[in-house]
Predict the 3D structure of the following.
Amino acid sequence: MAKAIEVENEVRAVDFNSMTVKDLKDYATERKIDFAPKVRKADLIQLIMENDDSQIEELEDEEVEILEDEEIEELEELEQELEPDDSNYDENDNEAIDELDEEDSITDVDDCIKAVKSLPGVGEATLNKLIKSGFSSLESIAYTPPSIISDESGIGEKTTAKLIKASMDRLGIGFKSGEEIWEHRKNIARITTNNKELDDLLGGGVETGSLIEFFGEFRTGKTQIAHQLCVNVQLPRDRGGIEGRALYIDTEGTFRPERIIQMAEALDLDYKKVLKNIIYGRAYNSDHQILLIKEAANIIKDKNIKLIIVDSLIGHFRSEYVGRGTLANRQQLINKHIHDLLRLCDIHSELAIMFTNQVSAKPDVFYGNPLTATGGNIVAHGSTIRIFLRKGKGEQRVAKMVDAPHLPEGEAVFTITEQGIGEP
Ligand code: GTP
Ligand code: MG
């Protein structure tokens, strides 16, 4: 096509119509084209067009073809065929990805970045710094304290404060009415645990937009529930899922694909697809764990992630920060990490985050109440639900609701079998 346009431009470059008859005659004489002394302008142009081969030679030199209309049409058609057609494009040849609406979310990601780019004072360099440090949407900027954005992106605090203010203005964030909070809560979806009592205890399953903690002693089923949720999040809505992917952050090396296969097969799912839809990150130390969550912020929409597992949340912190002198430091870091997670829940109402926590005696000694806002500008949609697990008889386990702002306290009994979490 480009060639055809070039040809057209080339021919039009000499506009005979705008030339005077005298100039036309000079032009013809120069090129040894014969014409009658009293020739009409139109005839003279015709003569020149027919006999002037200088331009054609020029074009041939450049190897530019003169295309017939039909050929141009054919080329246009061919070009259209060759253009990548997004609707048929399937990067991983994975049907499950189609089912999970990834393409819609790719557009969302582009839109988010465009929105950040449009903030006053954001040039390419600032935009890159923001994206690299995980602030690729207005929400992620608006909900993060300025000192954190500044520390992580290297952008000065004054600029950061302006960016936050502008993001908040764009999003219309400020005080909200109870009705608006209710609107947000109405969008919350739930993931089944495979156990009716436990689902009921949770108000219908593990809810999105919230941070949920399962804590208890060793072998009480924390990791098993985490595995089960990674499978169940992928289920269609009419089977208790939310058709999303899971991101599994494993700090203890206890993720077992074999268990996923057993659980997927028990639900008549194609285990290969189920495994493909679990994105796995092994965190080797607390810094790495914090970093993985920051990176997660950038892929949640892109990869259609609707569940994040952190198993376990404080293991690394506990082993790395030993001794009294380091306790305050450790708790501060854990608090920050929990707030990173809470912010993700605030930003993505379709995302559930489940973390596990091992305890031996008092569950509360490891960190402060995560619900206590520590300043900043978090708009608290994000709530925290805490479930305490203990062993029952044989395969049975008991889950107790400990701390949920909107759910009654109570207990549920579930089992752990080869098929996964189940009914007693
Ligand atoms: P820690 O990580 O050590 O704190 O424990 P946890 O709470 O994460 O324990 P986990 O979820 O790994 O539960 C382990 C228990 O699950 C085992 O004691 C088994 O009773 C049960 N379990 C795990 N896999 C299977 C299985 O394939 N079949 C059956 N029947 N039970 C299993
Ligand atoms: Mg475990």
About this structure: DSSP finds 19 helices and eleven strands in the chain. The two ends are 69 Å apart (CA to CA). The chain has a mean pLDDT of 78.
